[in-house]
Amino acid sequence: xxxxxxxxxxxxxxxxxxxxxxxxxxxxxxxxxxxxxxxxxxxxxxxxxxxxxxxxxxxxxxxxxxxxxxxxxxxxxxxxxxxxxxxxxxxxxxxxxxxxxxxxxxxxxxxxxxxxxxxxxxxxxxxxxxxxxxxxxxxxxxxxxxxxxxxxxxxxxxxxxxxxxxxxxxxxxxxxxxxxxxxxxxxxxxxxxxxxxxxxxxxxxxxxxxxxxxxxxxxxxxxxxxxxxxxxxxxxxxxxxxxxxxxxxxxxxxxxxxxxxxxxxxxxxxxxxxxxxxxxxxxxxxx
Length: 287
What we know:
- The chain has 10 helices and 10 strands.
- Strands 1, 2, 3, 4, 5 and 6 form a 6-stranded mixed β-sheet that branches. The chain has a 4-stranded antiparallel β-sheet with strand order 8-9-7-10, with helices on both faces.
- By secondary structure, it is an alpha+beta fold.
């Protein structure tokens, strides 16, 4: 095998709670993570010429070690002293800086692809151990299933598949820095915590309506304050048939859950025709 084609899936957070802040500066989290059928395409080709060469369809993305794709490839090349290089083509479709783990998923796919191409024999757990060095969401993006995520994101518990539904995704024309959002969050000011255990129970019971009812994200208190359009998108989805709507991750992307395809399509049209969101997708969960 000298080439591999991969899909790097986007994620949404059905729930996100910030438990506290650690001495090392990272935040302790409890999250329920879900992959959705929105993805970047990645092609990796082995080259006799050493080094990593990345090309992408978005001209503003870095194509050097400032891109997690290159970091992931370099991590494997350096650890295993590989004498060959790789040519990587990254076709981005997941919105950038959107709270959907697009970069983390790209990095996870490259770790997986390098392992396959060079026959390294690393297990999923071993890949996840390396992935956390690239970013807190990378281990989950290697796991690629419905999961409870704890710690900084590296402690993962696999959950049953999310109930079948339609997911409307809308990203306004702004980008949000995860680091900046956490920098503005004062954990001592958090008075209410999402019912993460309730969301987990609803998933185990295959109850879409309870999942939608209990969805909450602690980071909304920071991001919506700076970008009220996020709340407006949530309200628009709710007014157009969503069982529940929530900001994903640190934002600004909003998603809504629908049990009716026609309502989801109608809401999609409302958001596409309005000026609230720059990118709108209608998709499903991946299990």
